[in-house]
Amino acid sequence: MATHKLLLLPGDGIGSEVMAEVKKVIGWLDAQGLASFAIEEDLVGGAAYDSCGQPISEEAMAKAFAADAILLGAVGGPKWANVHYEVRPEAGLLRLRKDLQLFANLRPAMCYPALADASSLKRDLVEGLDVLIVRELTGGVYFGEPKTITDLSDGQKRAIDTQVYESYEIERIARVAFELARTRKNRVVSTEKHNVMKTGVLWKQVVSEVHGSDYNDVTLEHQLADSCGMQLVRAPKQFDVIVTDNLFGDILSDVAAMLTGSLGMLPSASLGAVEEISGKRRALYEPVHGAAPDIAGQGVANPIAMIGSLAMALRYSFGLIEAADRVEAAIAGVLADGYRTGDIWSEGMTRVGTAGMGDAVIAEL
Amino acid sequence: MATHKLLLLPGDGIGSEVMAEVKKVIGWLDAQGLASFAIEEDLVGGAAYDSCGQPISEEAMAKAFAADAILLGAVGGPKWANVHYEVRPEAGLLRLRKDLQLFANLRPAMCYPALADASSLKRDLVEGLDVLIVRELTGGVYFGEPKTITDLSDGQKRAIDTQVYESYEIERIARVAFELARTRKNRVVSTEKHNVMKTGVLWKQVVSEVHGSDYNDVTLEHQLADSCGMQLVRAPKQFDVIVTDNLFGDILSDVAAMLTGSLGMLPSASLGAVEEISGKRRALYEPVHGAAPDIAGQGVANPIAMIGSLAMALRYSFGLIEAADRVEAAIAGVLADGYRTGDIWSEGMTRVGTAGMGDAVIAEL
Lengths: 365, 365
Ligand SMILES: CC(C)[C@H](C(=O)O)[C@@H](O)C(=O)O
Ligand SMILES: CC(C)[C@H](C(=O)O)[C@@H](O)C(=O)O
Prior knowledge:
Radius of gyration of chain A: 20 Å
Binding site for NAD(+) (chains A, B): 77-90
EC number (chains A, B): 1.1.1.85
Number of domains of chain A: 2
Largest interface: A-B, 61 and 61 residues
Oligomer: homodimer
Shape of chain A: globular
Binding site for substrate (chains A, B): 97, 107, 135, 226
Number of helices of chain A: 12
CATH superfamily of the largest domain in chain A: Isopropylmalate Dehydrogenase
Bound molecules: 3-isopropylmalic acid
CATH architecture of the largest domain in chain A: 3-Layer(aba) Sandwich
Number of strands of chain A: 14
InterPro entries (chains A, B): IsoCit/isopropylmalate_DH_CS, IsoPropMal-DH-like_dom, Isopropylmalate_DH
Main location (chains A, B): cytoplasm
C-alpha cells in the first residue's frame, strides 16, 4: 500500500483541539490497514510566530512542498493583533496558498438534513442545500502590488491595495468550476462587479470565452457580487456552483456556510494545478471556520469540519474513495445518533465536547 | 414657505415606474400646502446614454449641483451590457456620487413588522430588526487609479483595480457613523479585512483613533468583513450601526436588506459634507433595490422604497419632519391595511401593482 505524506498544521485557537480528533481518525485508518500515512507536524500562524518570529518557518514550508497533502486547522487571534503586518498569523496561511500555488479553493456549503433547523433560514429554503463555491485563491487584492501605507503631510496617511487578475488566472479557475459543475447539476454562476471594476470586466469576459469554447453544455449565468449575496439569502437552492474571485469568495463563502447552519461542519480544499509529469496536484485541506479564539482551550469546538477535511484529502489527494466514504458516513452517523457539539446542539440531543465528538466518530467507524 | 429644489432622475428599468408614484406624493404635499417644491427632471444611466451618448449629461449635472436634493430611481440593465465601460449606465450614478462628494451612504435595513414573514430568516431573528449600514461612497476600489485592462503578449490581458483610502476619508465616515449611533443604540461595528488589506489596517486604526478621541461613549467593535457577513445571517439583531468601505458596504448592505424581507421597501440616503457657510449638505436619495429589468414595464414594481426615499429627503434635506412622519406613517398604514405588491405578497393580502400601491399611499395620507 502506498504511504501518503500528510503534513498537519494545527495552527491557532481551536486548531490544535480539532486536529487532535483528526489524529484519532488517522490512527484508526492506519490500524485498520485502510491507509498508510507518514505524518509530519509543524506550526503555522501565531503559534509559529511565537516560536520563531515568522508565521511559518522555512522548515515547515519545506515539509509543505514535500507533502502529498496538508491539513490545516486555523490561524489568527487577538493575541497577535499588534504584530507587524508582514508576520501576522494569516501571512503563514497566505504564503502556503501562494507559494504552493493553491489557486482553487473549493468550499462546499451543504446543509446536513439532521441540522436543517440549526440554520437561521426557514427550513424549506435550506433543506437539501448543496452549493459549491469555487474561489480563486492566489490572486486578486490579496496579493496584488502595490500594497502600502504611506505617510502624507499633516499626519495623514494613504493606504493602497491592488486587485490584479490576468486572463490565465481567471481561465484556470473557470475551468475548475465548469469541470466540477459537470459532476454536479451542471450550472455555474460567475460573480464579479463588472459594473464598477475592470477586473470584473475581464473576469466576465474570460469566463464567457472559456464557457463558449469548451463548456457549452454547462449552464452559465453572471451575477453581480452584491446581487449574489442577496440571492444567497433569498433562495440559496438556486445555486449549484459559484465561481468568484479571492475577496468576493471570502465573503460569499462565509455567508453561504452560515446559511447551512453547519459552519462547524464544513471542510474546504485548496488545490493547485495537476502537474504534467507526476499527475499530482498540491492540496491543502482546512475547515471553513476560523480559529474561534472565544472558545479555544475549552474542549467544546466542533471537530467535524476538520475530520471532513481529512475525508476530502482521502478522496481528492489519495484516491482512497472507500476510506473517504467511510469517514463521511461516520460523520452522518453520529449526527443521526443525536451527538451534537454546542454550536449545533438543540433540545433533546446528546451534548458532547470536541473529544466526545471525535470518539463518537471513531465508535461509528 | 421655502421652495425646495428637487431633481428627479428616474433612470432605467423600474426607475420611472416607481418615480411616477413619488410624483403623486409630491403633488399631494404641494396641494395640501405642506411643502413647496421646484421640480426638475432629467435622465441618468442607460436612458441618458440612449439620448446623448453619456450616462449623465452636463445639463443634468448642472441641475444636480443646483438642487437641494436629488431623488434617483435606478440605473443599468442588460440592454447596455455592451456599451463602453466609461459610458455604462452605472457611470452616471458614480459620477453624481463622486462629483457631488456624497461620501456617506446611509442604508437602513429594517424589518417592517407586517412583513417579518417575508424574510428568509426565522421570524424571531428579524422581528424588530433595525440596522443602519453607513457605507463610504466616494473612495475605495470604486474610484482608485490605476483602473485598467492591458493587453499582454499571447492574447493575455491584465486587469487592475486600485483600492485607495486616505485617513481623512475614513475619519469623516467614522464620525458620521458615531454621530448616528448616538441617536440610536450607541453601538458601532467597523468592518474591514485588516488581516489581508492595508486599507483595512488603516481603516481600523483611524476608526479606533476617532473613537478614542471623540466618541468614547459609543461602543465600538471591529469585525472582519467575512465574519460580519456571517454574523448578519446568524444574528442580525446584534447590530446597530455598521460602518464600512465602499465595496464591502455594497455587498453587506444588500445582504442586510435582503434579510429584512423588505428589499422593495428600503430607501437610502447619500450625503455630502455640511457646507461651512450655507449649512447645507448635498444629498441624493434612492431605493436600495436596483433597476430590476426582469419586471420593468409591467407595473408590478414596489414603489415604497422610492416613496420612502422622498420621506428621507423631507426629513434630512428639507427639515420637513412633520411631512416626513406623515409619509412614513402612510407607508406603515397601507401595509397594515394589507396592500402588497408581488414582491411582498402573501396569502390573504390585497395584491396591488405599482400604481395601486401609490394610490393606496395617497389615500392613506
Ligand atoms: C484567515 C484569512 C486570511 C482567510 C482569508 O481571508 O482568506 C480566511 O478568512 C479564509 O477565508 O480562509
Ligand atoms: C449600480 C451600482 C454601481 C451600485 C454600486 O455598486 O454601488 C449599486 O449596486 C449600489 O449599491 O448602489
